[in-house]
Amino acid sequence: MTNKTTKKHLSRFRPVDHAAVAFDGGFWKSWKDTVRTVTIPTQHKRLEEEGFLEVLDFEKPPGPLARPIQPSGLSMQHFFDSDFGKWIEAASYTLKQNPDGKLETQIDAIVEKLEQGQMEDGYLHSWFIRREPENRWTNLRDLHEMYSMGHLLEGAIAYFEATGKRRFLDVMIRAMDHIAATFGREGGKLRGYGAHAEIELALVKLYRVTGEDRFLKLGTYLVEERGQQPSYYDEEARKRGEDPADYVYKTYAYSQAHAPVREQPDVAGHAVRAMYFYCAVADLAYENDDPTLKAVCDRFFDDLTGDKLYVTGGIGPSAENEGFTRPFDLPNESAYAETCAAVSLGFWSHRMAQIDLDARYTDQLETVLFNGALSGISRDGEHYFYENVLESHGQNRRWKWHYCPCCPTNIARFITSLGQYFYTVKDDAVAVHLYGENAADLNVGETFLRLKQSTAYPWEGDIAISLGLEAPSEFTLFLRVPGWCEGAEISVNGAPVDLDTVVSKGYAALKRHWQDGDSIRIHLPMPVERLYAHPAVSANAGRVSLKRGPVVYCVEEADIGIEPQLLRLPRDVALEPRFDGEFLGGAVLLEANARAAEMSGPIYRKKAAKTAEKAITAIPYHLWANREAGGMQVWLAEEV
Amino acid sequence: MTNKTTKKHLSRFRPVDHAAVAFDGGFWKSWKDTVRTVTIPTQHKRLEEEGFLEVLDFEKPPGPLARPIQPSGLSMQHFFDSDFGKWIEAASYTLKQNPDGKLETQIDAIVEKLEQGQMEDGYLHSWFIRREPENRWTNLRDLHEMYSMGHLLEGAIAYFEATGKRRFLDVMIRAMDHIAATFGREGGKLRGYGAHAEIELALVKLYRVTGEDRFLKLGTYLVEERGQQPSYYDEEARKRGEDPADYVYKTYAYSQAHAPVREQPDVAGHAVRAMYFYCAVADLAYENDDPTLKAVCDRFFDDLTGDKLYVTGGIGPSAENEGFTRPFDLPNESAYAETCAAVSLGFWSHRMAQIDLDARYTDQLETVLFNGALSGISRDGEHYFYENVLESHGQNRRWKWHYCPCCPTNIARFITSLGQYFYTVKDDAVAVHLYGENAADLNVGETFLRLKQSTAYPWEGDIAISLGLEAPSEFTLFLRVPGWCEGAEISVNGAPVDLDTVVSKGYAALKRHWQDGDSIRIHLPMPVERLYAHPAVSANAGRVSLKRGPVVYCVEEADIGIEPQLLRLPRDVALEPRFDGEFLGGAVLLEANARAAEMSGPIYRKKAAKTAEKAITAIPYHLWANREAGGMQVWLAEEV
């Protein structure tokens, strides 16, 4: 018999404090600076300008709706709480590294209103409290009460961790206790769960911050109850006097509530709901050391990365359900690929790597970070994409604020807490997941480690890592060897490491007595790669995408003067990388002698269009749409 | 000085009576038989089952809405009148060739109710009469009063012509006189016009049937007033207390009402509205012998066929506005390409060829007839497509009836009146536009001509034409040489005609003293053609479509057992036509040794997928989706 109390099933690496990782140069410094100095303040301004914060004026009668009711019965205004919740979270991450009295005051003002508005029993949702308190908790299927409270809770935790102030955290603990008193399998409670997952992962965070089991228990209930039959949503609809068959999205797979999670065969439904939910599933696998839940996650991860993933890391091709469709349905121009979905794929990948140190997860984290998530914010830090298309004819432009502005605060909290994604630790190990200039203060068991990366990554593949230790210490340093890389080289203090013997699941395990001043050099060759799609991706037949290192490229009309759709890239033409320090903060661009088809002739003809030589420049996908409007294409037609 | 009263500007060929053309064999016989014996009766059944005819129970209080109100303020139920109007029209066309007492009784029952419901002043629209008479004529922008009356009028004319019964016609004349009394440029009248064009072309028909100038005058007013500034729709919205800026479709181009027709630069907006409108513009050019209006039509025709046309003749790629977008935006899988739009492109092309005998118009008529319009009805005659996509992964299936069932009756009236599209006449000429087995009784001036085509067209390109004449007669026989055809040959009584000397604008002009028994043989070579799209059609880069004669082909999963998206067609592979008499009533299929990509491997890879030989069968596009569900593709990827 195995001893269940001690047997470890899963490798459990802990996330590190994002604030322990300083980005004082390199690729991420300018992004983090921009988000802190431009994005966070302008987002607060938008929240004010657009009336989001007015929903907290509990003493006033509610004004006219800022957003009309949708066919689903939902108004976007219904989840305004979530937007400032996420903004507080993102702002708090910056606060922890860069104290800012004005910002704290802004957050405190929101917290004060939330506290004033909170109902006596702990319920907290501005819409219902002000507009229809009698209808609270009557429509978990379509409305977003738990979702909004989950985002407020994440904000409260981040603010507590940044400032030590408990007020917001206590408000949200009361709200969580109210939920626990209302929902559960015990007699007298409702067996409900919010349709848009979010609170589940927030509850695991709360458990980790407070150490209180009841929050983990509540999160576990919410994850495991989802999709149980008969459906709570059917029952709830009938209570409202509605026919469950009238559900606007037709299937509860929209909210991953069509079956209990362990029985769900594949990735389905609304992409952000799916990702947030899978994050919580992975968190519970971690906390309960439960390989069966991890296997469920892997089933989803295999499905997602096998046939439902854009090359940029974007996910969820369809606007109709903001989510998944059939395998290999990955249209370029109509790609929905919501910024939030890519960001939350990053969240999930990060969690998967905590329970199983495998680069197949962190490869996706890196992909979204440099491509499908980062594309969601402009270089100036105050314009956004909701959809991240892979082809445009100039109609897709970034906006200052969105009708449903979930994405701006999501990309903000991703970047402001970026450090946590670079490293995870165990008592005897540290794992390096991402490369980029930074210096991290890490605790590896009892050992304090200052790990410094010097590198021009992702523009170059050479990384120098130096270790600062107070005393020599034995631990394993895991270094990710990206899945995109062939011919990686690693040396320690000048001595080459035989990667064949130390690399497992995409990580080189360097176990030794590390000394202060030890240095590691990593060389990741970065030739320009042509990537082809699976032939079942109809949109990409005869097309090729370009990638160098972790960065996916595109061709934008601004650089070539014609619609990139006219280009034909001969298969054998060379693509030359060139660093351009003036290009939108500096980037490696790719140059090639491609061919362009003539813009003439009838719409249908017996011979394919003639082409002529055309010099092209490809730019990193995440930097597109920062200049004048025009066409863009990730998947270029190859010349026959 | 030119004498304006006698100078002829436009070549004016008159349409012929559809009933004078008998299809007793060949391609169209089975389609016409199916539509008469299956489609017309089942459509009446659907109109009953679905409550369409209940809107005429004027003595009863109106029941609950069969279709909810849309964001535009419109319910589909609002134009139910148009659906039975079109059904009566289609049914009447069959009546004229095949008298049917039961069918007449069904139509008379509808007519009786319409007459009973008609308001004293002639107004006739079931929705407003029963539900909100006080609001009639208050929202021409969004609602469909004139549109519905136009379809009823077309139905009334067809029924009058089939049976000689005037009752319905008189009802509709009263309705038209009411409109003329209400709308116009004279003082005291409203300067309105219906947003969905239709009544304009119906009024020209009414003018031709009655000879009454006032109907032509009303039609002319409605065409010329459309888009005049300041906009009537703005004024009307303000009268309703609305802000014109809230218009749900944003631009009046949606209804071709953004500018006066003569100032409109290009094809824009809702595709069916555009086509119906252009039909009326062409009709007015005809009636007024007005080359300036014809030039306007040509501007639209050039634009449409230059950069906004699917290879199938489908038009209007976008579901959002059911219409046109930017040039070369022709996605395959999301193609809207409404059946009604293709049908009405047929109507317009036919009208253009009346004012200018040019095969560039009738080539489009033929294209929609064999492809993008005919695809809208199943081989069994009782299932339909609304959208006619050019690529499917099995999700597109034909339906018995539609939420907005405008298409079934449209394709029905096209096929039931098909004869009129085959020929047009003048006093000294007859033009043969279409080929197919049929016998037509035509009046060429004073001469009675029986023209008989014997042919397996479109499956074969040989057509034998015999002429029956009571006496020898001089006239010009114009024979269309299709634009798709190279190497056409024509002989008269065995003597070859030198086409170089007689062909102009795609028609061979054979002017001679024709004798009874003269015979003509036409040989139109029909090799299988590969057609490439303009390179700016991004969806078709690296792809090829297949066409033989007028018939566009597709590959359907039902024939090849794999998704056609996996196919790669080598450029030099032969495509062999083979007639299969068992295939859905008989058709020429194409066979080839293509290649298929392996359905394996990662979603992104450094080498394009391997392919292996795969025998394929391509079928006529119009016959797809008549068997089990599966993928379909018109534009096949070529192998690099």
TrEMBL record, chains A, B:
Domain Non-reducing end beta-L-arabinofuranosidase-like GH127 C-terminal: 528-636
Domain Non-reducing end beta-L-arabinofuranosidase-like GH127 catalytic: from-to ranges: 21-419
Record-linked InterPro entries: 6-hairpin_glycosidase_sf, Beta-AFase-like, Beta-AFase-like_GH127_C, Beta-AFase-like_GH127_cat, Beta-AFase-like_GH127_middle
GO BP annotations, alphabetical order: carbohydrate metabolic process
Positions of the Non-reducing end beta-L-arabinofuranosidase-like GH127 middle domain: 430-526
Cited Pfam families: Beta-AFase-like_GH127_cat, Glyco_hydro127C, Glyco_hydro127M
Protein name: Glycoside hydrolase family 127 protein
Originating organism: Martelella mediterranea
